[in-house]
Amino acid sequence: MLIRAIRLTSCFVQVEFGPPGTSLSIEAVMEGIRDDNSFFYRFSGGYFDVQGTWGGPDGMRIPYPVPFDVLEKLRPGQTKGWFATTYLDERLRISRGNKGSVFVLKRSGGYWEKEGV
Hints:
Layout: E1 3-8, E2 12-17, E3 22-35, E4 38-50, H1 52-55, E5 60-63, H2 68-74, E6 80-88, E7 92-97, E8 102-106, H3 111-115
Antiparallel strand pairs: 1-2, 2-3, 3-4, 4-5, 4-6, 6-7, 7-8
């Protein structure tokens, strides 16, 4: 799968993939600070967003098929983890997840203008 961009906000991560206008948004709740470079999170929901030709004139939002709250009750800890930043500059963040995944995250265009920095 080719991933074009990932955007991290306070509540969710959005991964754009496949044809332009297709993305997966996974919602997560921050549950505390692990140390100076990492934080704890819990997945809480998500959806696929399809725009353009595949999504029709108004686009289409499809729920992500994982019931995170139910999964957490059945298998405690399964929806939780931590995310550690190993490199950070104005355009790029490299991070590692608690299960060993490495994420290369690029700020979305216009980020600094939106933040007023």
